[in-house]
Design brief:
With 77 residues, the chain is mostly helical. The chain is 96% helix and 0% strand.
Length: 77
């Protein structure tokens, strides 16, 4: 672990502030990449929930229409 740390320190010393900016940029990119992946997964879950909700609403509407028609036919008899 010490040699890896030493290598990073030597790299930063040799590249100056540009090396530090490259590391900070890379870290920022990695954080954004992870956040984007989590947002995509959340969006996919939201789409599935929305589809299920829409299917359920359609079924309830169909049941209500069927009930209305049954009540109408009952009144006519």
């Amino acid at each position: 672990m010490g040699s890896v740390f030493t290598t990073i320190v030597e790299l930063l010393q040799s590249t100056g502030p540009y090396g530090m900016m490259a590391i900070v940029g890379w870290a920022f990119w990695r954080v954004n990449e992870k956040k984007d992946k989590e947002l995509r997964e959340f969006y996919e879950q939201l789409v599935k929930l929305s589809e299920t909700q829409t299917e359920t609403i359609v079924k309830v509407e169909m049941a209500l229409v069927g009930l209305r028609e049954a009540l109408r036919s009952y009144r006519l008899e």
